[in-house]
User: Fold this.
Amino acid sequence: MLEADESARMITAVEERMKDVMESPLVLRLPEPVEVLREVAWLKGMPDQVIEKIIQASENRNYNSGDALMKQGDSGDGLIVITRGSVKVSIGDVVVDIMGRGAVIGEMAVLAGVPRTATVVADSSVQALWLTTESMQSIMADSPELAGSLWKTAAMRFSENLLGNREPYNGWSQIQLRRWLSEGEVTAPADGEKANLYGKVAVLVAGKATAPGMAEAISAPAKLDLAEVEYSGNAKVFIRNA
Assistant:
């Protein structure tokens, strides 16, 4: 479709550009930890001053491939935000997730002071930000929105682990399940408060729940396959319409 001399000029120009690209040095700029922190899902929409407080309170940490960031059952202080690399998350001997940049792990130690619920091992060289329980609780005391966002992050993770092997969710893709869970909400019922769970999917994230006639309370984390419940122990419940 082109004249011979025009096509020759175009081929020469393309070859020269390809040569320049191949001979030029590769410049790969990796995001700074602070930049990653501003992108994480549970901080979306937070005021700049809240993010600045988190940045100032954080400590950089590095892990080699195979290093354990935390172990299931251990008492733990603080949470970790992955800023580079990836980690494997295991419950018992089962790998339940692989997390990368922007993922938060260990949040339940901050929120409820519970032992580590999973083992987390570096799957590559990992860089992370460490935030102590004390510093995060201090920041959350001034920002209920931050506390609510972190509770929802924890609740969605527990719900995914508890529902993923059940029907019909075991036939869903991970992305489909996570999108479905994102439309749920976390409630904080008062001790002694009763609730009707008919037509709802409910996951007890913290505290305890009992049903009429039940001799022993259900402790978190657990899926509540009950029509009516009464909560205790500063419960937190993830609720999603069925």
Notes: The two ends are 60 Å apart (CA to CA). The chain has seven helices and 14 strands.
